Amino acid sequence: MSDGFDPSYFSKLFELEQKSFWFRARNKFILWALRRYFPDMRKFLEIGCGTGYVLSAIEKEFPGLDLYGGEFYDSGLQCARNRVRRASLIQVDAKAIRFRNEFDVIGAFDVLEHIPEDEVVLSEMFQAVRPGGGILLTVPQHPFLWSRFDVFSHHVRRYSAKDLGMKIERAGFRILSLKSFVSLLFPLLLLSRLKRSGARDAYDGFKELKVSQPLNFICEKVLDFERVMVSWGISFPFGGSLLLAARKS
What we know:
The chain is α/β, with parallel strands linked by helices. It is built from 10 helices and 7 strands.
C-alpha cells in the first residue's frame, strides 16, 4: 500500500494518454533525449512504468533494446501488459530496486514527485545503473505552481532546477543536461493555475488534461516546435516540467 498514487487512475490514464497532447509531447521529448544522451544503451529499465505508455514508445523506437518496466502497483502492470510486447514487466518498489550495476539507463517519468524519500530512490538508481550508464528523469517544475492538480495527482513536491540538480549530484551522478520543457505553453499553464487557485468546487484533475480537439492539436504542434528549439541548443529558464539526463561516472 502507498499514498503516493491512486491505483484507480490507471484505467483512466490508459484511455487518456494516447489522445492528450501533453503525454504525446512528453514521449517525444523522452525519445529525443534517449537518442541524444544514451545512443549506445542496450538495457533499459523504467521505474514507475504505469500503464506502459512511455515504455511502448521506447519499445517501438529502439527495437533491439533489452527492455524492463517496473511498477509498484499490480493494476498498473496489468495495463502495461496490454501495451507492450517485448518488455519484461516486474513489480518494483522504487525505494528498494535491488538490482546492482545492471542497466545502461534507468528512466523515471513523473515519478519522483510522488515519493517523499526521493533521495533514497536516486541512490537506488545509482546502485542499479552500470558504471558509465545513466538516468533520464522528468518531474514537474516550479514550487510556486503548486495547485489542486498536484494534490489530486498525489504529488508531495514540485522541483526547482537547483533542488533537483543538487539531489542528483548528492546521489553520485554527473549531470549531462537539465532543461525546462512545456515552456512555450507556460503562460497558459500559469493562467490555468491562477484561475483555479481560489475555487472551492469539486475538482477532477483529469478535466485539465481533456481539451478540445483543435486546441489539443495546436498545443502538440507548439510543443513539437519547442522540442526542435531545444534540439538546437536553446534553453528556457522556465517551463511546466524539467527533463534531466545524468551519468554514473
